Structure formats: structure tokens, C-alpha cells
From TrEMBL, chain B:
Similarity-based family: Belongs to the binding-protein-dependent transport system permease family.
PROSITE patterns xrefs: ABC_TM1
Spans through the membrane: 7-32, 70-92, 104-124, 136-158, 179-204, 239-258
Protein's cellular compartments: Cell membrane
Record bears the keyword Zinc-finger: no
Lineage: Bacteria, Bacillati, Bacillota, Bacilli, Bacillales
Main location: membrane
Protein name (Swiss-Prot/TrEMBL): Carbohydrate ABC transporter permease
Classification via InterPro entries: BP-dep_ABC_trans_perm, MetI-like, MetI-like_sf
Organism for this UniProt entry: Paenibacillus chibensis
Ranges where the ABC transmembrane type-1 domain occurs: 67-258
Highest rank taxon of the organism: Bacteria
Length: 288, 272
């Protein structure tokens, strides 16, 4: 039996070592550097205590990145969930070519986020503007990605277009777990479609709602590829997300230590939000 | 009423697919046009197919090299992940009553909450110190990072396989390794399909990890190539779109043939 146990140890130990070296160690190094003033390439650095952390709270660029990221993440998460639930309900109805439509709606999920971003970048600058001019709405006759106040909406559109795919499939899987006999019963009781949705459908797919909300929120808070492809954080810093700020500041701006402190805060924020969301939504699941 | 086709829903769903397909239609047609045809109409189907866009894009971006790199990294990551991550999960799943393995379980899955940017800056220093700023390094990192999610998914699955099977094998004199490879691994088909599909998609489409660790031109992956050549693309949209289309095509082709598998795999991965 001990021989058997030894084998089990050998199965895990190499993985643990690699995981420690490439995951835990860099995370700890990040925390370590966040207390220094290292620029990322020089030989010399000093410990500065909590100075980086203090500065982050008064840094306009950081505040701006958090504002954009949260605005983007909340709007995107809500839109993705509403739209994908509607599409899933449609796909779950008695319609022809259901599998064909399902295949189309899922297609964006398999495409590279970066390349989809580049395609939409072109559409925003050269195609949607044609419609804007024809329809006479002045806000849409110019490229919205170049507009400081509207650029974030462009990024939301691209993220929603692609994000719907995954959530739709999950909601559809949830809807298919509901036995049709429940609907037959509610039909006999004379329940309206609206009541049916809120009293039967929604409570029964609550676990899927939880997963979808948490995943969509986490993905949106990490937004990076879309930013690179669509605006590169611009105009000015209007669409700079937190990951984009850490990337540009840390690698190109000589702020290695400072952005490490930023990423530690970012980690805490994401962890807290994920846990709160899970707690809140799972609490509701049992209520329903 | 419910037994008949719901025409209103069908129409709405069909209209929705236009929104999904429109950007892809534009990609395909722009990739086949030349600038003159673009000025005539952006939307129209091209009258003559300008295949030279693809030839030019292949030459400019060294497409086949980038494709080879992407395919190699994706394939190696999938194989390596399936073989190693399942093994680790097996050892954990069968020893959850022991502190060490239970601790490992939580150690691995807690990493799902670590956002990549927190390790992004140090990992660049680390990989360059270890001479891992190449495709091999990329494959190793993808495989190691996959552990967090895969241990979670695999352990759940392995625990549903009855231990009795292994006990019988042990009585017959099979060792722990042999039991895993001959008895357990073949039983993990469905979950391996799920993990394989997810890893294939995420590795092939990944941009951030290659962006920060790959510096040698000959090692660029497909998404990285699109990023690097943006400056040169800006003047020639037809060429750019030909390049985008070629980069997306391998996954689209795989999707056309394995659509059902992929959708099921992705669903299983998330529901677990």
C-alpha cells in the first residue's frame, strides 16, 4: 500500500513544483516588487514601503482605468445576460432549423478575440459610418471609437457580440433540463407566458444564471485584447482598462513596481467581487 | 399551439443570426475585393475574386510559419495537458482523505481566481532568465496554467468512477501507474474531449501570453502576427482581411466538422 502511495506522490510532485515556479512564485514576486521602486530593467532598487499603494489611490490614470473597466464590465455583463437568455429562449422554442441556428450563434466563441476586434475596428471606421450618414444621426456619422465619450460603447458592442455565444449555449443547456410537464401543468392553471417565465423558467435556471453572471463579469473585468484591437486605450485614456494600464505602464512606462502594486489591488478587487457575486447569487438561488 | 412551429420566434432568431453573420460576411467579401471594388460598394459581393490578396498576405506575414507555430503549440499543449493534468487529478481524486492531496486540490483551484496581470510582469523576467521565451516555453506555460481549471473538472469526474475497478486491477497485480493508464484513462473519454476542446480553443486564440514572452519573429503565433503587422495593414484593408480570414479559418473548419462536439464540450466544461 505504501508503494501505491509513493506512486501517487510522484504523480503530483512535478506538477506542484512547476505550478509553484510559474504561478505562485511570480505572484509572490509581484507582491514583493510592489514594495520597491524598481523600474523593471535597472540593477538597483530600494524598498519604499507602502508608497506605491498610497500613490495609486491618488493617481488619476488608475482611477480612470478603474472607472472605465467597471462601467464596461457592468454594462457588458448585463447586456450579455439579457440578450443570451432571450436567444436561448428562442432557440428552445419549437422552431425549425434549431441546430443550425444554435451553430451560428455559437460561432463567435471559437474566433480569436483580437482578430474579431480588428474586424470590428474596420467596421466602425468604414462601414457603420456609412449607415450613420444615411440615417442622418450625426453621432454615428463619424467613427465612435474616435469619440472620447462614445468609444467605450464600441468596445461594449464587440464584447457583447462575441460574449453572447458562450452564455446562450449555457442558458440553452439550462432550459433543456426543465421538464416539459411543468409547463403543461401551468398551462392548465391558466398561467400567462410572463408568469410562466418568472415562476418556473427563471428559478429553475438560476444556477446557470449564477455561472453566467460570474463568468461574464470576470471576463469583462479582465478586458485586454479588445482594447488593443479597437482603441489601444484611447482617445487619450478614455478606454484604458486596468489590464491595459498594467501592461503599458509596467512594460513600456518603467513603472514595473508601481504597476505590480496596482495588480495586487486588482487581484483583491476581482477576488472579492467573484466571492460576493457567488454568495449573493447562490443565496438567491435557494430563496427561489 | 405549442406543438406548431412558432413563426414569430423563428423570424426573430433568423434576424438575430444576420447580426452574427454580417461581420463575417464583410470579412469574406473584403478579403476577396480590391480597393477599386471597395470604392464602388463596400457591401456588394465581389464581381471578381482577388485571390492575390491571400498570396500577398501569405508572403507578407509569413503565414505558413505562423500557422505552423500556432498549430504546433496548440497540438502539443492539448496532448501534454490531457496526459499530465489528468494524472495529477487522478492522484488527488483518489486521496482526498489525505491532508496533502486535499491541500493540493485547493492550492490548484484557488489559482482560478488569480488574474493574469498580477503574474504578467514577473513571468517575463522569469521566462527570459530560464531561456523560455520560445514555443517550448509557451507550451509549458499553457499546460501548467491549465492545471487550475482542469484539476477542478477532472477530480469531479474521476470521483464518479467506481474505485472497485482499480481494486480489481490491483489484485491482478497492476501497479498504480499501470492502473491509471490502462483502466482509468480510457474511461475518461468524455471529459478528455471537453478539456481537449477547451484547451485547443484557448491556446490557439491566445494573444496575451505570446505577446509578452515571444520576441523572436520566427516564433510568432497567428494572433501575434495580426498585431505585429497592424502598422503595415493600415494602408491595405483587403490584404489585412485576407490575413484575418486565414488566421481564423483553421478553427472555423474544425468547427464545421465538429460543431456538436465543441458545443457539448464547452457546455460540459462550464456546468461541471
Amino acid at each position: 500500500m505504501t508503494k501505491r502511495l509513493t506512486a501517487f506522490y510522484w504523480m503530483t510532485v512535478p506538477a506542484v513544483i512547476l505550478f509553484f515556479i510559474f504561478m505562485t512564485l511570480p505572484a509572490l514576486q509581484g507582491v514583493y516588487y510592489s514594495f520597491t521602486n524598481w523600474n523593471g530593467f535597472g540593477k538597483h532598487y530600494d524598498f519604499v514601503g507602502f508608497k506605491n499603494y498610497v500613490n495609486i489611490f491618488t493617481d488619476n490614470n488608475v482611477g480612470n482605468a478603474y472607472w472605465f473597466t467597471f462601467k464596461f464590465a457592468i454594462v457588458t455583463t448585463i447586456l450579455i445576460n439579457i440578450l443570451s437568455l432571450l436567444i436561448a429562449l428562442g432557440l428552445n422554442a419549437k422552431i425549425k432549423f434549431r441546430n443550425f441556428f444554435r451553430g451560428i450563434y455559437f460561432l463567435p466563441n471559437i474566433l480569436s478575440v483580437l482578430i474579431v476586434g480588428y474586424i470590428f475596428n474596420y467596421l466602425f471606421s468604414n462601414v457603420f459610418t456609412i449607415w450613420g450618414k444615411n440615417s442622418g444621426i450625426s453621432a454615428f456619422s463619424t467613427n465612435i471609437l474616435g469619440n472620447e465619450n462614445l468609444a467605450w460603447i464600441g468596445i461594449v458592442i464587440v464584447a457583447v457580440w462575441q460574449g453572447i455565444a458562450f452564455n446562450t449555449i449555457l442558458y440553452l443547456a439550462g432550459l433543456q433540463t426543465i421538464p416539459t410537464s411543468l409547463y403543461e401543468a401551468s398551462n392548465l392553471d391558466g398561467a400567462s407566458r410572463w408568469q410562466e417565465f418568472w415562476k418556473i423558467t427563471f428559478p429553475l435556471i438560476a444556477p446557470f444564471f449564477t455561472i453566467n453572471m460570474v463568468l461574464a463579469m470576470k471576463n469583462s473585468l479582465m478586458v485586454f485584447d479588445q482594447i488593443i484591437a479597437l482603441t489601444n486605450g484611447g482617445p487619450g485614456r478614455a478606454t484604458q482598462s486596468i489590464s491595459h494600464l498594467i501592461y503599458t505602464g509596467g512594460f513600456q512606462g518603467g513603472e514595473f513596481a508601481y504597476q505590480s502594486a496596482n495588480s495586487v489591488i486588482y487581484f483583491i478587487v476581482i477576488a472579492v467581487i467573484s466571492v460576493l457575486q457567488l454568495k449573493f447569487l447562490q443565496g438567491r438561488e435557494t430563496d427561489m | 399551439m405549442r406543438t406548431k412551429t412558432n413563426w414569430l420566434v423563428l423570424i426573430l432568431i433568423a434576424v438575430g443570426t444576420i447580426l452574427i453573420l454580417f461581420p463575417l460576411y464583410m470579412t469574406l467579401t473584403i478579403a476577396l475585393k480590391n480597393p477599386e471594388e471597395m470604392t464602388r460598394s463596400v457591401f456588394a459581393i465581389p464581381t471578381t475574386f482577388h485571390w492575390e490578396n491571400f498570396r500577398n498576405a501569405v508572403n507578407m506575414t509569413h503565414f505558413f510559419q505562423a500557422f505552423r507555430n500556432s498549430a504546433l503549440v496548440t497540438l502539443c499543449t492539448v496532448v501534454l495537458t490531457l496526459l499530465t493534468n489528468s494524472l495529477v487529478a487522478y492522484a488527488i481524486a483518489r486521496n482526498m482523505n489525505r491532508k496533502f492531496f486535499k491541500g493540493l486540490y485547493f492550492y490548484f483551484i484557488s489559482a482560478m481566481f488569480i488574474p493574469f496581470p498580477i503574474i504578467m510582469l514577473p513571468i517575463v523576467k522569469l521566462t527570459s532568465a530560464l531561456h523560455m521565451t520560445n514555443l517550448v516555453g509557451l507550451t509549458i506555460l499553457h499546460t501548467v496554467y491549465a492545471l487550475a481549471f482542469n484539476v477542478f473538472v477532472y477530480v469531479g469526474y474521476i470521483r464518479s468512477i467506481p474505485v472497485a475497478l482499480e481494486e480489481a486491477a490491483t489484485v491482478d497485480g497492476a501497479g498504480t501507474w499501470g492502473t491509471f493508464w490502462r483502466i482509468i484513462f480510457p474511461l475518461m473519454g468524455p471529459i478528455n474531449a471537453t478539456v481537449g476542446i477547451l484547451i485547443c480553443l484557448s491556446t490557439y486564440n491566445d494573444f496575451l501570453l505570446p505577446l509578452i514572452i515571444i520576441s523572436d519573429q520566427n516564433s510568432y503565433t497567428l494572433p501575434l502576427v495580426q498585431y505585429i503587422f497592424q502598422g503595415q495593414f493600415n494602408t491595405d484593408f483587403n490584404l489585412a482581411f485576407a490575413s484575418y480570414l486565414m488566421a481564423m479559418l483553421p478553427m472555423i473548419i474544425i468547427y464545421l466538422f465538429a460543431q456538436k462536439w465543441i458545443i457539448n464540450g464547452v457546455t460540459q466544461g462550464a456546468v461541471k
